[in-house]
Amino acid sequence: MRNSDSEWQKLGAVEPYWSVLSDPRYRASSLTRDALEDFFESGKQHVEFLFSTIGRHFQTDFRPKRALDFGCGVGRILQPLSTRCDSVTGVDVAESMIALAQERCRAQGLTNVELLRADEDLRNLSGEFDFVHSFIVFQHIPAQKGERILRRLLSLLSDHGVAAIQFSCSDTRSALRRAVNRAQKSLPLVHNLANLAKGRPWGFPYIDMNDYDLNRVIALIHREGCCAGHIIVRILESEGSIGAFLFFRKGPHSGPEAQQSS
User: Fold this and answer.
1) CB-based burial of residue 45 (10 Å sphere; 0-12 exposed, 13-18 middle, 19+ buried)?
2) Which among 86, 135, 140, 88 has a CA at the least distance from the CA of 115?
3) pLDDT digits over 109-128, tens only?
């Protein structure tokens, strides 16, 4: 069985931007300054979407004191998030990506961002966070391990804190493509031959994709004391998969009364 963390560390070293957003413009071999700025501009747009959604459904004046971005990669979300929070912690498994994120934060003069390498159980995270975010990350983590990480993240969410976490939940590829993907996952030779067919190097890292059972995820969130009032689901469709972006709040009630009292 492949180690998803190990594969992702390799991927972060060779394709740190394309592995986040699989647009050919973000390939390491052809990355331009304009493309790089577009990449980070997409992070600003994403944060606008996050806070617009939270403002409509949970709290209009939401401003976290402490925020966590799990799977921060090269820091696409960190910079715009840092302008809306007192402090932001970014966590990622790939040291190469953390190094690029640190370089970007220094260049932007950000002093309220902390970067940490993720260990197996996120033991190096402590304290509480008013906002926990993760986008296009859990889909690269096997579901059993991902559920364990989700429990840990929710244990770090403060009372009345808000979480926005995305999961892939349906593989829409053909049966043949799913079968080939299973073979690539279990047989390195098949994966490397597929790399050559796609014009990639022989040993290009395997990008693991995993679907989650939303019934299990929502039950887990509920057991951890979240979404007792309501949970907002945004359906996201991309090539080959359908995802669910979940917004919820921790506490005994997450409806209008909680918003007014916070």
Assistant:
1) exposed
2) 88
3) 999 999 999 887 899 999 99
